[in-house]
């Protein structure tokens, strides 16, 4: 079950990140974060009411609040990095945040077997290579790297926090709702401050019409991201965090495949090799 839900997380995150990266090329990143997460709040609110998840309150929800504070910072940094590009810089480096939940798992006493350790090493190498790393370039690329490293640490922290925010399915719904409400609060405040300083909240060309036309895509990004947090929490609660975190971090492979299918970007040899290594690592982890 851990492997299945963790791989579902990778699929959802990979598609959400690809969609978010495309949207931020026309729309300010903060606006993408706030609108997409607001849609997720509305949907989760309905689910919480329908399932009676309001009763699943407790001190563990502070983990959800913390995840909600860290998440928008990580998403904003990541979306800005994706907008700067190239994805060959952003996608592989963004996955190194896996070190945070893996480190937490080891600290709390998890000891992966030899086969799983081999799978982790092979999968992480594949994740990095699947993005087609391009570490040479001008200042814009160095800025993209810096933003991606900030996002990576933030994403890793969110993975660790959300795994501790609930102990049941209804509790998970409430935790995700609290996380997203906090996301919107933090992101909305940042957007307000940004606009007050002269930045734009709407695209330069098309304005609100562009946002309205992009609502389906924004909804997909928000809902895919929240679903990924949910599937990761389930994966981490039903098996070793070290395994769940590594498998969930295969999302750069999905991002690269989406870029190939939608944008017709050609997969470089290093990306194809990375995807193959990631697959081998997945098999080793599952077998272990």
From TrEMBL:
Span of domain EamA: 3-130, 144-285
Keywords annotated in UniProt: Membrane, Transmembrane, Transmembrane helix
GO CC, one annotated term: membrane
One Pfam short name: EamA
Membrane-spanning segments: 32-54, 61-82, 114-132, 144-163, 169-193, 214-235, 241-262, 269-287
Keyword Transcription recorded: no
InterPro entries linked to this entry: EamA_dom (IPR000620), EmrE-like (IPR037185)
Family from the record: Belongs to the EamA transporter family.
Listed name of the protein: EamA domain-containing protein
Organism the protein comes from: Streptomyces niveus (Streptomyces spheroides)
């Amino acid at each position: 079950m851990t492997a299945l839900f963790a791989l579902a997380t990778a699929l959802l995150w990979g598609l959400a990140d690809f969609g978010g990266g495309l949207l931020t090329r026309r729309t300010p990143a903060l606006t993408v974060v706030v609108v997409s997460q607001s849609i997720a709040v509305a949907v989760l609110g309905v689910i919480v009411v329908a399932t009676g998840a309001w009763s699943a309150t407790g001190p563990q929800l502070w983990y959800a609040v913390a995840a909600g504070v860290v998440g928008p910072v990580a998403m904003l940094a990541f979306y800005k990095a994706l907008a700067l590009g190239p994805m060959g810089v952003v996608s592989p480096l963004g996955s190194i945040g896996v070190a945070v939940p893996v480190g937490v798992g080891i600290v709390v006493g998890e000891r992966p077997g030899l086969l799983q350790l081999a799978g982790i090493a092979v999968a992480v190498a594949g994740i990095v290579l699947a993005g087609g790393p391009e570490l040479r370039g001008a200042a814009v690329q160095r800025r993209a790297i810096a933003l991606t490293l900030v996002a990576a640490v933030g994403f890793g922290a969110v993975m660790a926090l959300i795994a501790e925010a609930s102990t049941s399915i209804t509790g998970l719904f409430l935790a995700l709702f609290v996380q997203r409400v906090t996301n919107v609060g933090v992101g909305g405040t940042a957007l307000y401050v940004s606009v007050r300083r002269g930045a734009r909240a709407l695209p330069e060309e098309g304005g609100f019409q562009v946002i309205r036309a992009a609502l389906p895509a924004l909804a997909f990004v928000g809902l895919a991201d929240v679903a990924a947090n949910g599937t990761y929490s389930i994966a981490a609660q039903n098996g070793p965090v070290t395994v769940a975190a590594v498998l969930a971090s295969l999302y750069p492979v999905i991002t690269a495949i989406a870029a190939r299918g939608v944008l017709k970007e050609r997969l470089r040899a290093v990306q194809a090799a990375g995807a193959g290594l990631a697959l081998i690592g997945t098999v080793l982890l599952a077998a272990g």
